[in-house]
Design goal:
Its main location: membrane. Helices cover 36% and strands 22% of the residues. It is α+β, with helices and mostly antiparallel strands.
Length: 753
């Protein structure tokens, strides 16, 4: 028996040893596999990355885009956040049906009252249906889900939200897809109210997540929109595009851990970087002036049925652009900021270019201002090889330099330039002077905003160099943008110093200025002091007796220096009719300029519509000059308190209370028969003022002689009369004698002097 037991024991030991060996081999294999996986295989890292990417995600925290501001800090373009609450109706925080129903009913009533788009019952029904759809119950004994929402709602009502019953009898299937609950996105102020409502004032169990969206808005509407610009699918232009990087800032980043589908929580640390908001771009635009320029230009474009126009207002000393309006015609006939015409339209300017010819003739050719040429009464003449050169007006024959500027004579300047630069070798001198000394062949520093380069010829190897020279003398065969033209005129206003215009004043973050922009000097002097004085006097003559006299003849308020220009556009459209470019550039006060204004309008020749520069662009420039003057009280004249006392020789009639106030300050004595109403004023030899009231009978013609235009118009129109007037100053004649019975609607003509 012993040998048998020994054999069994040996058999058992063998088996045990074999098992040991197998276990050791298996352990070795596992160990080798572990070493391989840990040290040599890329599979673990790959799977770990995949798992990590499913659980953790790096989120970009967008920086808030900077605002574009006016010079006074008013927003022209800014970004605001929009908010939307996206509910997770399958979140554990909503497992208790009783609590959900109570909270949802209260929230429904509040949302209905806040948005007013639908009744509270519809909000409540939406909440119940979404909850039933996202939070589904499954009976383990059945093979199909209980999909009937009506049945499911009734069953959930029966369960009364008792979680232990639900878990004991049913399994839950949760759909964590976020559902937007507001009918629209809300702004920050609205969200501050909504966040206090039930279900929105707590976030237990990730009931909802807040979706934020950065939206760009333009508080001033279409005002200066082409200058402000845009970025995105609809185009990239203006300040928005030029300063895209500065406005955008730097995005931040954060690591978030997935909690449920569509819901993440931020992981503390993990390389979090806060975003850096973009800079605010502070422009030089004055909102009041921009608004006035836009309205004045729009009114004139509509009145003249024009194609497009631009108005620029520049501060003379600093070069800052205070207003920049660009309006073009839409297909429906309305006008909008379609294109930045001031910077992008390089066109033949016409007679406004004569300022360059004036400086060239006086400084380079040394032509005396007493030089006289025969302008042939506006008849076509031949000058050099150029034929049919004529003036647009008649009445002038032999005129001097000053008269030629005032009347904008093409013939005079064409003859003067041909005589001095028409000989061999001098044509190049003329164009070189325009380019090198007057700097008209270069941009003025707004290339970043889309400024187009000017065109001043430097190649005279053309079929008709003589014709080109003559045409250049009065603004053809050269191309300039409006911004380049106003920069040139501003140099004459700025004591000869040409500076670059400035549209962006500074970059700011909060109250801290990060970078400031100032104008650069293009030329310290474009002409001599003597030439500057002569040219300024000539430009003033344009306003007092020349092509701009209809707008600025009255120099009692402010003296203006200006130049008008008209150019017939010769391009493919000329086959469809005649197109014209009318311009006016002015600076004021003429003796110590502070502002320079330009208006350029393109139109088509139409019956009864203007196309010359004066009547086409003049009303807009006049409106800007008047508005700036009336706004700037610091430059009004004052009566000095020193020296001998002086009294007025004449006092205008009008409102009696105002006449009395003036007479009490400026005259020894004032007498009157009424303290209020309308009256006439007479000054005797002792400078005493006697005020006589007008009759109250509205059916009798009043005596408005001696009144100013504003008061006379009010008095006459208040009595139902239609008034026409001529002249400036005070009324000296009226077509209906005082005391005559009048009928409403009758016409009366008054003459002022």
């Amino acid at each position: 028996m012993k040998p048998e037991r020994s054999k069994i024991k040996s058999d058992i030991l063998l088996r045990v040893r074999l098992l040991y060996v197998l276990f050791i081999l298996a352990g070795g294999v596992v160990l080798v596999r572990l070493v391989w996986v840990q040290l040599f295989s890329a599979e673990v890292a790959y799977n770990a990355d995949r798992l990590s990417s499913r659980i953790f995600t790096e989120e970009v925290i967008p920086a808030q885009r900077g605002s574009i501001l006016s010079r006074d800090g008013e927003p022209l373009a800014t970004s605001i956040f929009r908010y939307q609450a996206a509910f997770d109706f399958a979140s554990p925080g909503l497992d208790s049906l009783r609590t959900f129903r109570e909270q949802a009913d209260s929230l429904s009533k509040l949302l209905a009252a806040f948005f007013g788009d639908r009744p509270a019952s519809e909000y409540a029904r939406m909440f119940r249906e979404e909850h039933a759809r996202r939070y589904r119950l499954v009976n383990p004994r059945d093979t199909q889900y209980l999909r009937s929402e009506g049945w499911l709602s009734r069953m959930l009502d029966r369960l009364r939200g008792e979680e232990y019953v639900t878990r004991r009898i049913y399994d839950t299937i949760r759909d964590h897809t976020p559902v937007a609950v507001f009918p629209r996105e809300v702004d920050y102020a609205e969200w501050e109210v909504l966040r206090r409502y039930p279900l929105l004032n707590w976030n237990m169990g990730m009931v909802y997540r807040l979706v934020e969206r950065d939206e760009r808005i333009y508080p001033q509407g279409e005002l200066a929109r082409r200058t402000i610009g845009l970025t995105g699918d609809k185009g990239n232009y203006g300040i928005e595009e030029a300063y895209r990087a500065e406005l955008a800032g730097r995005d931040g980043r954060a690591v978030r851990q997935r909690i449920a589908r569509g819901f993440y929580g931020r992981v503390a640390g993990a390389g979090h970087e806060d975003p850096e908001d973009g800079y605010d771009v502070v422009t030089t635009l004055d909102l009041d002036l921009q608004d006035v320029a836009d309205k004045a230009l729009r009114r004139q474009l509509e009145r003249q049925n024009a194609l497009w126009g631009t108005t620029i207002v520049m501060e003379t000393r600093t070069g800052e652009i205070l207003a920049l309006a660009n309006l073009g015609r839409n297909a429906d006939g309305s006008f909008a900021e379609r294109e930045n015409y001031a910077l992008s339209r390089s066109m033949e300017p016409g007679s406004t270019f004569k300022l360059a010819t004036m400086l060239t003739l006086l400084d380079d050719a040394r032509m005396p201002v007493t030089t006289v040429y025969d302008t042939h009464n506006g008849d076509p003449v031949k000058i050099g090889p150029a034929r049919n050169i004529r003036d647009s007006h008649r009445g002038d024959r032999e005129i001097d330099f000053r008269r030629a500027v005032a009347s904008s004579s093409n013939v005079y300047f064409a003859e003067a330039v041909w005589d001095r630069y028409g000989i061999t070798g001098r044509k190049q001198r003329y164009s070189d002077y325009l380019r090198d000394e007057l700097h008209l062949g270069e941009t003025v520093g707004l290339e970043r905003l889309g400024e187009r380069a000017p065109s001043i010829t430097s190649d005279w190897k053309v079929p008709d160099p003589g014709v080109m020279l003559v045409k250049m003398a009065y603004g053809y065969r050269v191309r300039l943008t409006p911004i380049q033209m106003i920069t040139f005129y501003n140099a004459v206003a700025n004591e000869g110093r040409m500076i670059s215009p400035v549209l962006v004043r500074e970059l700011r973050r909060g109250d801290r200025v990060e970078e400031r922009f100032e104008s650069r000097t293009i030329s310290s002097s474009v002409c001599s002091r003597q030439t500057l004085r002569i040219v300024r006097e000539c430009l003033q003559a344009v306003c007092t007796e020349g092509t701009a006299s209809a707008f600025f003849r009255d120099t009692t308020r402010v003296r203006v220096a200006a130049k008008t220009g008209t150019a017939q556009i010769t391009d493919a459209r000329s086959r469809e009719g005649r197109y014209y470019l009318g311009s006016m550039v002015a600076f004021f006060p003429a003796d110590a300029p502070r502002y320079t204004v330009l208006t350029t309008i393109e139109t088509r020749a139409q019956a009864g519509k203007a196309y010359y520069g004066g009547p086409l662009a003049g009303p807009v420039v006049k409106r800007m000059v008047d508005y700036i003057y009336n706004r700037g009280h610091d430059w009004y004249g004052r009566v000095g308190g020193d020296g001998p006392r002086r009294y007025p020789e004449r006092v205008k009639g009008g409102d009696i209370a105002q006449i009395r106030r003036v007479a009490d300050r400026l005259s020894p004595r004032a007498s009157f028969d009424s303290r209020t109403g309308w009256g006439r004023a007479a000054v005797d030899s002792l400078s005493n003022v006697a005020i006589t009231s007008l009759p109250d009978d509205r059916g009798v013609m009043p005596d408005v002689r001696g009144m100013g235009l504003k008061d006379a118009l009010f008095v006459l129109e208040s009595r139902g009369l239609r008034v026409r007037f001529s002249g400036q100053g005070a009324v000296v004649r009226q077509s209906i004698a005082a005391g005559t019975r009048i009928r409403p609607g009758a016409a009366v003509v008054i003459t002022l002097d």
